[in-house]
Amino acid sequence: MLSTMGAMTNTGRRPKDEWLLQLNWHGRVADEAATWPLIHRTHRPTDRTLESILGSNRIELRPVGTSLEASRGYAEAAYAFLGVASYPKGLVALCLDPAVTSTLPCTFTPFDTGGVEAGHLKSSHSADELFDRWLGEGQGMLEVAPSWVASLYDSASDYLRSVGGLPRPNRSPATGIDTEGRDARAWAIEVQLHESLDLDRFLNFVVTTPDLARSLPETWDVHLAEDASEDALGAAVARHLTREHDE
Questions:
Q1: Kind and range of the H or E element at 220?
Q2: Over the stretch 220-231, which tens digit does the pLDDT of each residue have?
Q3: What's the pTM?
Q4: d(CA 218, CA 192)
Q5: Number of domains in the chain
């Protein structure tokens, strides 16, 4: 015991100093997370929703994707994730002002509802238990999301880059959902919007492929992915958000 204490003293850093260092680091992670957009992906070859979005300049609602939501009275929704282009799939990422959660009716969960219901995300808790315990409403997302991200990652950029499931969180999520499957939907915050969204009001920027960028309004702030793969789109979103914060 004495030798251990001596070694600790020789480092010049007491346990309290180390703890405060971690708190400060996590504080920086939370500060970054508070600035991230909500990301709604769209436009797959079999689902040409981008055309309807451009026609109305809105993200319209569709029937909810799970019985978890339907059985609790939610009929329609549009889905987005905080900071990561996790789901739905598609070659256009519409990056939305997170203030939408304090303006339009919405709910949120710290996991993908469809992945939980389908059993893709493993947990000792049932899908119903997870949904009922962790469902949040409205502007509460802005209040809890930064702390949630900081509870998982020591680096904000690691959360942003985890769209492909790596890097995995430094700490397991409080939901108890297994992260070994390397699926960011196990820990990313999903927002379920319950009112259609006006892009003129809430669109911050877009990430897409060079070909699709030509069809977008010139007034939109558009950033390009390196190629037309869905993985490249997620990586491009992460790069832009990381670079934006560094600047």
A1: none
A2: 999 999 888 878
A3: 0.86
A4: 29
A5: 1
